[in-house]
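Category: protein sequence paired with discrete backbone structure
Discipline: computational structural biology
Format: plain text, a pair of labelled lines
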Amino acid sequence: MYEGSNSVYLYGGAVGQRVTLEAGKKYKLSVMLYPTVFYAGGVSMGFYDGTKEWPGSNPVKTTDVRIDWTNSWAEYSLIYECDKTQEYIAELYVDGGACETWADNFIIAETTEDEIINNPSIDVDYNVTNGEYNKDKLLNISRGGYFVNRNRYWMPSYYDKYAEDGINMVRMDWILSDEYYHIVSKDNEGNFKYDFTYLDEVILPLLDKGITPYMCMTGTPEVMGGVIEPPWGFVGRKRDGVDLDELSAAVTAVVQHYKDLGYTGWYWESHNEPESGEWGSANQVAQQYGAFAKAVKSVDPTAKVGGIGFRNGDVNKDAGWKTAFFSYLQNNPDVPLDYISIHEYNCVTTFSSGDVYQSMAEEYGRANVPIIYSEYNYDWTVNSPGSNKDTNFNAAYVSKRLFSALGQDNVDYVFYFT
């Protein structure tokens, strides 16, 4: 295992070296990185024209890398086929706005490697399998909390395409957020009242296409104390915790509404990445899960309940949150848990981290709980056309992860986040 014993810690800024490269030779620029914070940010690396007064404004060959919190070192590199003998600057730039990472082994070396294989050959053994193909397990997507979803007609405009592609479930997030659906309000006497007009405009057309919503009940309505705050400026945080009776009432109303319309047996998720404390402490969030799960099951015993949308695949990250959640479940055996939900991004190309979550749950008395990856992708951002997620790079990445999912019997569903 790479240890990075001589690494340096970078928080913004750049490191570089002047070098003379020769025309007709290929050079590989590589670095080992270990990001230390969740959503670590961006890194740019490459060669710049060292003969210019402002080399940083004159890139010759560069690449942008989106890095995220991982559980190991990873190598990032690019290959440059030099066409002009001159002085260059090899540079590694770290985004100071969000990125904190350890870096080591910043190396420039001649190479015979090819950056792109123009005529690849693939050997296939059709006698080797990786599990039975399960379309419903793989073909699920997760909708993010982006402001474009304020337009309630935007996503439904894609439902025909979803159906054509065979999508099984769509994860609908921020259900209780006033930013999108404004379900919960109060009447003149101060009693809760519920309006499902906006939510139905997104959910019912999806059902008409034969696609099932996966309901994530994130967000705290203003009438329940939710506030708008940075960095996102939306969705309703409540860092001192949520009133459990009010939460139960709101969840019950949503589940009952769709049961009254004839829909039962859906998957319901309690939170979306609560580890930053947006809805209280780890212990408070665990209690919120209990209130949520009991409320859902009280209306629809056939529903599946789970959580808490953990924000990374490594159980050692935010370890106290995992301990608090599973300890709560151990101490409250009457609280149902039908699945554990995880989010996982970046260079991870399997779904094997669910094994560790499942083992941890078993240690706390919840054996054989299925895993759902309710978000996965190379990164979590919404990028422009031509970015990594819009290229053959991400297509290969997703294909490898889906192949991995077929061999993970303890993983029930995976949701591509976009």
The chain has a mean pLDDT of 86.
